[in-house]
Design a protein that fits this description.
globular, D-Maltodextrin-Binding Protein, domain 2, 20% strand
Length: 612
């Protein structure tokens, strides 16, 4: 491990970057216009800068854990581990694509975006009091790129890290014009080099490529107070956190302790919530939201329930069809699976009509494809016409609709024709190909609540002759199988920002398809999509980015890689009436842990009500 880091450091003299002092020093960066808060801002307007600190909060998490280190693909991670770490810059949950300096006092880059330099704030330190140094930044980049498949792709174009000042580090890129790379490096989580190169209490060398139950050293607003694998983990607020008075952190991370209780079953967790043993609940089930909250505590006012609007709600959530499986390599089969999903019926019977259908990969934004391609988008697609399905140019991308039973019968009839054309014919009531292989599909689930949603879909697939089944496993086994791509169909999420970029390689890039633990769950290996991703990454302006992203969206939809699911415009939360929050919440997050606080008067009143 240390030899690898040293070898990388030894290459630092190979290339040179422009000196930081000749470049503008930024307090924040944005890919969409300018950051909203100027360099002299005192705090964000979505916090209460005078929010009181204190109180203990109990939440819940599914499954269990066997490691306290989150930055490799090994083990089942405990909830909340990110609370222990600081990054160079932090995202604003109220802006489309802005980052503000946290560890970084300032950031600079040349006009061609060929490198980026960060200056570490004086006073930045780890929880053991040791200052954060350029060597820690270089070690962190080296370690994450080596041990994490996600970071290996994310930092693909970052080829060098060097100390360029007493508190400065410059990262050099192997490309120019990639506007997102400075912000990507701003997201770097900083690890303590001296800790990871040291030894644990047993005298054994620490290794960040392995699992560990030794609480790691961090520099963030919280540290681990106590834990019991599989049962709970509790974090305590670091009262002398080095960043607590900075404008970027003012009014945030207000709870003294955050405790996560682990449950294998959500029903049991909900019972604990109703009994007052869990303080905050985020509801993901439309049925539960509609039927399970007619509680006397809500009527009495001791329990509150509300829907909080979130701007980032229409993200792609879908049944992911694994192209590594032979049966899904034909686009006609994949389209048939989409036609066989009756969203309208599920929304009416299962979701109490609380959802809308996801229609594209980039949300309800100016990046989604619509109508037929025109202008710059059409010009981009024309360059790949011979390698694209004809419908890219002739058909507006839309999801199947089954407003009536007759509509759905027509969808199934169309699906049956596609399956026949793909070479699947009935044999003993099940579709089979010329080699006698049955058309099978196993839905791999980690949440038993999804079984009631998937069962009707499985029934409709069986009507077509597809041998569809459901298998529900625990979270640890599900994570292993997902990392190994050992599944036919799973439920996946593909969150997008207002300025897509390098993360697209991880979602759809050919290189990521073969890397275990990557987010290319589908297994896409398409030269056309690879080129569209690069057009997005190297877009010179917003108009070019929009055109390239719309083209990618249209190509992804035309290939029917997934069966889109649904979304709600709200974050549905319930909580015991002991909390307060800012008058304005950030538009892209409820930010419970980050900006809410315990109202002592309300907490006393609640305690009195419970005592009666």
């Amino acid at each position: 491990m240390i030899a690898t880091a040293a070898a990388l450091l030894a290459t630092a003299a190979m290339t040179c970057s422009a000196p930081a002092q000749s470049q503008k020093k930024h307090h924040a960066l944005s890919l969409v216009g300018e950051p909203r808060f100027p360099a002299d801002y005192k705090h964000f307007d979505w916090v209460n800068p005078d929010a009181p600190k204190g109180g203990a909060v109990k939440m819940w998490a599914r499954g269990g854990f066997d490691t306290l280190y989150p930055f490799n693909i090994k083990g089942n991670k405990a909830a909340g581990l990110g609370l222990m770490y600081d990054a160079l810059m932090v995202n604003s949950p109220d802006e489309a694509s802005s980052e503000y300096g946290l560890l970084a006092e300032w950031v600079s880059h040349p006009d061609d975006f060929s490198a980026v330099t960060f200056a570490i704030r004086a006073g930045a330190r780890f929880h053991d009091g040791r200052p954060i140094t350029p060597e820690d930044l270089i070690f962190s980049w080296t370690t994450l790129k080596r041990d994490s498949p996600f970071h290996a792709q994310y930092y693909k174009n970052v080829i060098k890290a060097e100390k360029t000042g007493e508190r400065e580090v410059t990262f050099t890129f192997d490309v120019k014009g990639n506007r997102e790379l400075p912000q990507i490096m701003g997201q770097l989580t900083v690890l303590p080099k001296h800790y990871w190169e040291g030894k644990d209490a047993k005298g054994e060398a620490r290794d960040p490529s392995k699992t560990t139950l030794e609480p790691p050293l961090g520099s963030g607003p919280y540290r681990i107070k106590s834990f019991e694998p599989g049962r709970f983990i509790e974090y305590e607020r670091v009262k002398d956190w080095w960043a607590k008075d900075l404008p970027v952190a003012k009014g945030q991370w207000n709870f003294d302790t955050l405790r996560f209780e682990f449950f294998r079953d959500q029903t049991a967790a909900f019972e604990e919530f109703k009994a007052g043993k869990i303080d905050f609940w985020r509801e993901s089930s439309a049925k539960q939201w509609a039927t399970a909250f007619d509680l006397p505590q809500i009527k009495a006012g001791t329990l509150k329930r509300e829907q909080i609007t979130e701007r980032e709600s229409a993200q792609m959530q879908a049944f992911v069809l694994n192209l590594r499986r032979k049966q899904f390599q034909d686009v006609r089969v994949r389209r048939a699976f989409n036609l066989a999903f009756n969203f309208e019926d599920a929304n009416k019977k299962l979701f109490y009509e609380q959802y809308s259908r996801v229609t594209n990969f980039f949300g309800e934004s100016d990046l989604k494809s619509s109508g037929l391609p025109t202008g710059r988008e059409l010009a981009i697609l024309e360059g790949f016409r011979k390698d694209l399905p004809p419908e890219v140019f002739t058909t507006e991308p839309k999801q199947p609709v089954a407003a009536t039973p007759e509509d759905f019968r027509k969808n199934l009839a169309e699906a049956a024709k596609l399956l026949t054309a793909a070479g699947w014919t009935p044999k003993g009531g099940v579709l089979a190909n010329a080699q006698g292989e049955q058309l099978t599909a196993e839905f791999l689930l980690a949440d038993p609540q999804f079984e009631r949603i998937v069962q009707p879909y499985v029934g409709d697939l069986k009507r077509l002759g597809i041998a569809a089944t459901i298998r529900t496993v625990d979270t640890a086994q599900f994570q292993r199988r997902e990392d190994d791509f050992d599944f036919d169909i799973i439920i996946g999420n593909f969150p997008q920002s207002a300025s897509p970029g390098n993360e697209q390689r991880e979602f759809w890039g050919s290189a990521a398809a073969g890397i275990k633990g990557s987010r290319n769950l589908i297994g896409i290996k398409s030269p056309v999509i690879d080129k569209l991703i690069e057009l997005i990454i190297f877009a010179k302006d917003r108009a070019e980015l929009q055109a390239a992203t719309k083209a990618l969206d249209r190509v992804l939809l035309a290939n029917h890689y997934v069966v889109p699911q649904w979304y709600s415009a709200f974050d549905r939360v319930a909580y015991w009436n002991m909390f307060a929050r800012p008058a304005k919440l950030p538009s892209r997050s409820t930010a419970f842990q980050q900006v809410w606080w315990v109202d002592e008067a309300a907490a006393r009143k609640l305690q009195e009500a419970r005592g009666k």
